Protein 1
Amino acid sequence: MRAVFERYEAALARNDVAALNELFLPSANTVRFGIAEQQYGFEAIAAYRRAAAPVHPQRRLLRTVISAFGSDIACVSCEFSDPSTPHMGRQMQTWVRTVEGWRIAAAHVSLSNAAL
């Protein structure tokens, strides 16, 4: 799971929209809540990715916790710093193993009220 998550983070840093879309579960039930927006369904997430600005190049993960629930479900929780905001960022993803590999079924990104 860590290697797949690191692949996701590398794609995010490069703004590799094709790789990011590949890592989301292609389902109408896939959900992504962002800092100021929300997408319901894979198509909405893909449309968001095509229009979204890249993450700040100095965005850094501060802490990552991977929790596996059996061999086919995992949650990844992290905190991150982003020079574009004085607040700590947080993200959580629920990953499911499919025949195509690990895919994100649900994601949530938010900013903490606490300053870095």
Protein 2
Amino acid sequence: MGGAWVKRWSPQGKGHSRSLVGALKVYPAQSLESLTWTLPPSKSHAIRLMALGAQAEQTVTLTGMTNAGDDAISMRRCLSQMGVQFEDLDAGGAILPSTPNADFLPHELATAWRIHGVGPHGFKHPVSVLHAGNSGTALRILMALSTRFNRPVMLDGDASLRARPHDSMTTTMAELGVSCSFGHLEEGLPLLAEGPWTQTESMTIDVSTSSQPVTSWMLASPASPAPIDVVYQGTPVSKRHADLTLRLCKEFGAPFGDALPERLEPWIPQPQHENIAVPKDMSLASFGFLAAKVLNIPIRFDEMPSHEEGLGHEILLEQAGALGFTVDGNTLQSNKEGQNVTLDLCDSNDLITPVAAMMALGEGGQITGAAHAAYKESNRITKTLEILQQFGLTCSVKEDGLDVPGNQTLSTPQSLVLTHDDHRLQMTALVLALGCNDAVTIQGDTLHCVADPQAVARFVDAGVPIESFLYQPE
């Protein structure tokens, strides 16, 4: 049987009793004077670095992996299924004893992951399903990596990942002669892919809804059978993430220039250094910003990534004053000096829900450039409106974002707060619940573990009562 990461079906259904669902009961935060906030490692960096390290011909050690989220662990698990060996290291650099388990979980004391690369052609055909959990990034990269096998590979994900569109990848896979069999209508997973990637003169990559397809093919290019021209279709979104892939590939020796490659050809990844530090995840700092606004207390981040590693999410620091925050070093404090502000989230659409909540509680504003947020774990444009409404807040939906009135006041939801299997909706609801007058029940007791395993624990450790329990939907 699969482990806790397997969540194949939504608990909702028609014509039968609904299953019990995990939920959180969050009580108002009282007497908190300040809070220290530790950010987890960036899953965007970690997942890409694992794909590159696995295709190198030597070892690569990723440091800074304490409290890695489930998305990074899903990528590690799937690479392990393809014959890549991982070793866990403690804070002193010593190898931790392996603890065999069906889910290839890292050691609980691990601060670094050592990857024993197998080279571009060293992957073993997986004998079981490659389950990417909640990670769209891991899934799309694995889809591209699986094209090198001449036998079928089954790929799958959780309920929210099953409901997301994957046609930008499957269309390109078909161009390369890879046979794809998958579901239709509401679910595009599981996917059965049978390669190998055959020689062809060119491939077309749609970059209009996500940067993940171009990331996937750059990372899979070491095993390409021959040089191939690349044609990009559409206006690029999340360009900072594609630029990250380009930069990391070049650091591993890829024959790419300074722009997205118009030609892919075989190459052997060779890291410049054996130890690579994975930066913190700037996108998750948004929930610290929201906590400072809701609780009106200083939030101290123990470490912030550089602007270069912020992947567009450094807009939080650049616009902190306009959003009504004072930043002193790594300490953040809400103030009353914000203004109605317009933020373009074209390269940082993961921020849409917490930023909309900040705007509602502050001076308001407009979010633009986020049309591609509709293709995330949920349609984050419409679902952000829904989350805000459940807490007595409001906004209006625009074609590419939201218009958020300011100076609104939180109210306590009177029913279960729905989060639609989306961890960023759940974490936004968690922080908003801390500012309510009564307890709030939130759908999804472990959703935050996808990106930030400490999201609940940091408040519990500070004395906030939060309970996890099974909820019976009406």
Protein 3
Amino acid sequence: MKPLMTEKAVMMIEANNTLSFQLGKNSKKDEIKKKVEELFDVKVDKIRTLVRNNKKYAYVKLNKKFPAIDVATKLGLI
């Protein structure tokens, strides 16, 4: 699981409280949710996935009590 650092990803962090990750193609939403909640000690509201060019991307919307910008700062993205 690798965090994405694109202009769109930063806008999603600020506007929608959403983190973006690039994943292995066989990752399931339940596994993604459990991993994000354990790694960053947050609550996940919703996960959307996208497969493009044989790569899988996950957009993880966090609960409002847990700002995505704090997690991004810990990761060194912002």
